[in-house]
Every structure is written in structure tokens, then in C-alpha cells.
Amino acid sequence: VNMYAKCGSLIDARQVFDNMPKRDVISWTAMITGYAQHGHGEEALKLFWQMERSGVKPNKASFISVLKACSHLKAVKQGEQIHHHIIKRGLESDVFVGSTLVNMYAKCGRIKHARQFFDNMPERNVVSWNAMISGYTQNGDGDEALNIFWQMQCKGMQPNKVTFIHTLQACACVATLEIGRQVHLQIVKSGIDADIFLGNTLIDMYAKCGSMEDAWQVFDKMPEQNVVSWNAMIAGYAQYGQGEEALKCFWQMQQECVSPNRVTFISVLKACACLVSMEQGNRIHACIINSGLETDVFVGSALVDMYGKCGSLEHARRVFDKMPERNVVSWTVMITGYAQHGHGEQALKLFCHMQHECLKPDAAIFVSVLKACTQIASLEWGQHIHSHII
After folding, report:
1. Global pTM?
2. What's the Cα-to-Cα distance from 112 to each of 99, 107, 128, 350, rounded to whole Å?
């Protein structure tokens, strides 16, 4: 069971498990862990409760795996029930179980519960601290994440690679460049600055803090770069209006034989829109077709947006009409394109079409359709849109 589960063959693992004449806690845990590790949280939870009903008592490893399943599903109610079982078994004070509980509550958005439990832990390890730093960052409180990072070191706990990654994400969250540089210096002193995951997080942090010069220095010194490294640079340049640099980066990436992905294309199309460069946009579009990503809803929406901002509404509409799937963003960028270029009637027609598709408009769509109402001087349409906003 364990072998098949760790190799990712959960069907084979389950077949062996179901055919076992007798199962002990190790068998059940191996199967639960397999489901949890491969993103089948619901199956992991079903099996955990089945294990409980069969009279087999979960052990530390069982609880850790099923709590990870709760984190993945954001199933806080189930997590709380499992927490009660942990208390009954007297395992709440175990540092590994406790760290997983902190992580579960944090990932489920119950950051106060996570902190309360963390503060009451009789013993903490680096995983406990990391869970708390990550929790605050994911919940948008970068300042508190940084406070925990400094507290951790005051308590004599040495940060590891995971700590630094979460702390750099916290710096990016609050755009604090100076603290980011301090953390970078600590990473260099720790001798782990050559790690590709840390390097990518450093680039992302510097880019989000607006220091593309620092981001480039990290990128340039990396012993190897992957698609994530290139994406972070391209997205950073595009975000700060340096479209030409973003495009240079993209073509250099191509020369290095690194295959662009969805994120790459979305960022580089943003750069084309920023430069109002149809020529570059057409070239990128050709690359997207070659990569087979033209049918991706996010890439398709970015293409519509790029063509719209470059003033080519025919190209934008052609891409929009060919999309096999459309989300709110797709409709928003097409309607906005029409409204921005004085095609109020077309914008309003498309808004009606969107409503027939039973999609809920967002604030950006309402702004665009109200602009369209102004263009065609239609009070009736304006009142109609107002009723939807209310």
C-alpha cells in the first residue's frame, strides 16, 4: 500500500488495501497519507472516519496526514473535529501534531485560532514557526509575519529555507524593500542563496517592492534559471511599465530554450498592451498558438485585453469569439475595449449577451458599461445598469 501510494498509483494502493484480510493503523495511515499527499483530501477524510468507525485508533502520523487533507480542502469544521480527537488521545502537546494544527487553522483562514494554539504550545520547532509566518502572509498580514520571523530568532531558533521563502513573501506582501534586503543578507550568510527556489522568491520580492535592479542582480547571479525565474522578471518589468525590458527578457528566455507557460504569456501580453505594440503582440500570439495555449481562458483573456488596448477591436473580438470557455475577466476586457474606443452600443450589446450567459458582472464591467451609456447618451440604459448595481 505504502509503495503504490508513494509512487502515485492510488488505484493500485486502494485495491491492495481493500483486499487485505486485516488492517492495522499502519495500513490505514499509509492509505490516508497517499490520498492527502496526492491532493485527494476528501478521500483521505472519508477513510479517516471509516478507520475510526472500524475501531482502529489513529496514531500521530494518521492525525498529521488527515490534518493536511483538511488544510488542502480548507475544511475547518472537519479540522476542529479532528482536533477534539487529538485532545482525547493526549497528542495535542506533540510538537509535530501541534505544528500541523497551527498550519491547518492558518490555511483555513482561522489565523486567531492558529496563533492562540501556537502561543500555548509547550514546545515549538522550525515547522511551527514556519506555519505561523506562512499563515500571516497568506492572510495578508505581512507585518505580523515579519514580527514572528524576528521573534523566532530571538528565541534562538535558526530559520531554514522554508522560513526564508515565507518571510520574503511577507516582505513582498507589505512592499518593505529594506527588510527584504536584510533577509537577503541573512540568506547569503546562511550559504543557501544558490538555491533556485530561494532565488526565485528573492526576484519576486524585489520585483514586487519595485526594485528591478536588485531583482536583475539576483537573477543574473543564479547558477541556473527556470521558467519561474524568467516569469518573475518579466512580470516585474511589465508591472512597473518597463514593457521593452519585459519583451527583451521574453525573447532572451526563448533563446535560452526555456519554454514559456501560461504565466509567461499573460505577463508579456501585459507588456505589449503597456507599449501599445501590435507588432510584438502578434508575434507573441503566434508563440501562444505554437505552444497550444490559445484555448486557455486566462491566456485568451490576456490576448483580448492586449488587442483591445492596442486599438484592434477586430482582433480582440475574433479571439473572444473563438474562446471555448470565457470567465468574467474575458467579458470585462472585451466590454472595456469597446467602451474605451467609443463603441458604446457594442459594449452594451455584449453586456446583455453576458447576462444571458448567467455570469455575474463585477465593478470593472459596471464602470465600462456606464461609460458606454454616456457615449450613446442613453438615460434608459443608464437606469437599467443602475438597477443591476443596486
Report:
1. 0.83
2. 15, 12, 15, 44
